[in-house]
Amino acid sequence: MQEKIKILYVDDEFINLQLFKIIFSKKYEVLTELNPIKALEILDKELEISIVISDMRMPQISGIEFIKKAKEKYSDKKYFILTGYEITEEIRQALDNRLILEHFKKPFDINQISKAIEAA
Question: Which of the residues bear the PTM 4-aspartylphosphate (predicted)?
Answer without folding.
Answer: 55
